[in-house]
Specification:
With 235 residues, the chain is of the alpha/beta class. It is built from eight helices and eight strands.
Amino acid sequence: MSTANVDAQELAKFSELAHRWWDPESEFRPLHQINPLRLDWIDGLSTLAGKQVLDVGCGGGILAESMAARAQRVTGIDLAARPLGVARLHALEAGVGNVDYREIAAEALAAEAPATFDVVTCMEMLEHVPDPASTVRACAALVKPGGWVFFSTLNRNPKSFLFAIVGAEYVLRLLPRGTHEYARFIRPSELSRFARDAGLELQAMKGMEYNPLTRRYWLSADTSVNYLVACRRAV
């Protein structure tokens, strides 16, 4: 597997905002708001207690640190050094001792430590790499047989363009302009194929919706914009 599945511009984009990662009123506010929904959905299916967990594309550590409160140990990996530094500092300040962070590609870690983790998460990352199928294969290689792999990304259709780019970045300004590139959005059928080809079995899929008036997110059956996928590696 390639170890160069990275877009330098994407790394730079998130590195520039690294110091604001843990500010719940910053550009990362949506991540803070959806984190409890993601965490409970992951835990409800995989039961994090006592598990070795890997968060691929962990950024500043919002999900990784929250999973560490429930799991035995969490490893977060990313290729952006500045967000990783923020993640390490926040964990230290919060006294979270069972999470650690590494600057390494998923493909490289898969070659180094295959079938190591009980649960692997890869949230809001696939739409930011040149070859998302490669990331999916790496996640499948990293999880133990019978283990769980979770993905979240954005669907590719006119509605998702209107909501996720025009609405979120330009009208509501929930995200910085240029956060997403529509051509990199991934249809559920495409992600399902990547997963099957990597030896993963689809277990569940949920959509995530947002009401701009109440500023509330919730999980639903509508996968037309944001969606989450749960898979298991065959035993």
